[in-house]
Description:
This protein is an alpha/beta fold. Helix content is 37%, strand content 24%. It has helices at 2-25, 39-53, 64-72, 87-91, 119-126, 153-162, 177-185, 215-219, 241-250, 256-260; strands spanning 29-34, 56-61, 78-81, 94-108, 116-117, 144-148, 172-174, 190-195, 204-208, 226-234, 265-266. Strands 1, 2, 3, 4, 5, 6, 7, 8, 9, 10 and 11 form an eleven-stranded mixed β-sheet that branches. Helix 2 (39-53) links the parallel strand 1 and strand 2. The radius of gyration is 23 Å and the shape is elongated. The relative contact order is 0.20.
Amino acid sequence: MKKILVSICIGVCLAALFVGCQKSEGKTTVSTDGSTSMEKLIGVLGESYEIETGVTVSYNPTGSSAGINAVLEERCDIGLSSRSLKAEERALGLVETVVAYDGIAIIVHPENPVASLTLEQIQRIYTGEVKDWKEVADFSGEIVLIGREAGSGTRDGFESITGTVGKCDYRQELTSTGDVITTVSQNPNAIGYTSVASVKDSVKVVAVNEVLPAEATIRDGSYPVQRPFMMITRADTALSPLAQEFFDYAISPNAGSVIALAGVVAAN
């Protein structure tokens, strides 16, 4: 009898363990990794999707290049990038899908009187040709150039649009959008760039070619400093059913009103 009871207990424990394993293996999360500029976008999409489906969308803010590598190494379901894939990345079998378009805001300290800069002036400032604010504004002071680190999608987008790739004379190269905003907000002579969706009241947005970044000016292309927000996947590997459903939701017209809550313009 004692042996029978022991056998029954062992069987019950093994059954419970099996059920527990099945539950832990039953995936209920879609993992995303990449662009720090896409934090608000993936936040509103993830929250909306979870309310509709109960599926959680996780987000790891590592930067565009790191997110692209995470897809290559199969460490996440979907990569997030605020820059286009490079030729060598496409050659490895990666695919980009545009979810939204975001303006890159040029930001200064709130006390800085400059209201608008031309694209050419921005180029000359960031390459070090213009070093003092008196050359482009009604006050003087050495211009302090703030930017993102190498590999950042925001940096790649900014430098590509302004024609300053590999030419910027940065004082500081920071690893997140938030750090750029904080640093500019603390230095009256600083200038930086950040996702429009991430701008805070602690900094002032400067018009470019007399056009301020807004949904209408990004959509019609009149604001010149803008870039796409993209999801990165592998061409040779199908997404899991859960990840595919979230992917389809994010690029559907139904997600447009949700995407607008992040301050960016839906691609569809």
